[in-house]
Amino acid sequence: MAELETIEMRAAYCNALLEIAEKDKRLVVLDADLMKASGVMPFKKAHPDRGIDVGVAEANLVGVASGLSLKGFVPFASTFACFAARRAFDQFFISSNYAKLNVKLVGTDPGVSAEFNGGTHMPFEDLTMMKMIPGLTIVEPSDDISAGKFTHLLFEHDGCCYMRLHRKKLERVYKEDEKFELGKAKILAEGKDAVVFALGGVMVRESLKAYEMLKKEGINATVVDVLTLKPIDRQLIIDQISKKHVVVTCENGQVAGGLASEIAEIIAYEGLSCKFRMVGVFDQFGQVGKLDYLLGAYQLTAEVIAQKVRTALRTTVKVGFGGPGFGMKIGNK
Fold it and tell me: Where in the sequence is the domain holding 148, given as residue range(s)?
């Protein structure tokens, strides 16, 4: 059967919601004056009694979602990731998670994908904030296929979740019959010299580009799509680092408290020895610009990833910190 045409990730998200709605009347979809931007307007038209726009009131969005969950519904509440994290954090922490409810919060336009929304609306910190919530499941799909299937998985999961969702179209990574699990990563390319852990559609693509660049130079790297930041695929990470010893993390957000921090904690706790490099945002605010410009401005490009691998393979770096993308050789083995 021929593969379907790639669609925007927000469309894949909405399509999955429509599929769920046909089978389960517990589903309710909410938004905060961004239904068109979030791609859920088709759901509102198909199910007007189950599509709720609360207006420009993100804290109320999560409060209403929590109330619906308390009554047995399964709410999916979407808004820009900057609002999901900064404006609604307390409500999501207390009303949803502390109360042990079943709210699915979706933050769109993560990191540099916010583009012309500008610095105030460019969330580099959302994953860092969300990762601090006990028991919260956090996912970031990398294409339309994974976006649709993770929407189904989150609906089936009993407990609060945060999905970081790129809204626009991205080149497809997975085939339509790909199977996914919460807490499980995917190996997209394999090599013996290094391992690159990438999170999110933007960084997965840059990592795959870096893989091709390095391959032409005789350097073979493994590329892992992390997919679930929490609970992270700990055993796969341990296995890969144990075999490769050169590790690069790639994320479209702050490295502090994000994927890099999570991998570093595993390395330290397990006593693994490796050369460790990070690609991500280092203590910076957002800005206005097109995606390609922003990738360059924050050093999130394939060339930067490839260079991290090259330098790690060539050098022995002492323990310590040396600014953005610092390297360190850590471990006791």
Answer: 9-165
SS3 content of the chain, % helix, strand, coil (to 5): 45, 20, 35
Decide if pLDDT at 22 tops 80: yes
| pLDDT reported for residue 5 | 84
Peptide bond before 231: cis, by omega within 30 degrees of 0? yes
pTM reported for the whole predicted model: 0.93
Q: What value does the mean pLDDT take over residues 199-213?
A: 98
58 included as an active-site residue: yes
**Structural domain includes residue 172:** no
| Residues 287 and 118: beta-carbon distance below 8 Å | yes
Angle between helix 144-156 and 9-23 (nearest 10): 40
Write the burial class of residue 101 (CB in 10 Å: 0-12 exposed, 13-18 middle, 19+ buried): middle
Q: Is the pLDDT of residue 322 over 90?
A: no
Are residues 205 and 120 part of one domain? no
Contact 210, 158 (CB under 8 A): no
% residues pLDDT > 70 (the chain) = 93
8 A C-beta contact, residue 263 and residue 249: yes
How far, in Å, are 195, 220, 273, 274, 329 from residue 317 at the CA level?
A: 17, 21, 12, 10, 6
Which of the following is catalytic: 5, 8, 22, 58? 58
> Is 242 found in the same domain as 154?
no
Q: Are 312 and 244 in contact (CB under 8 A)?
A: no
Tell me how crowded residue 99 is: count the other CB atoms within 10 A of its CB.
14
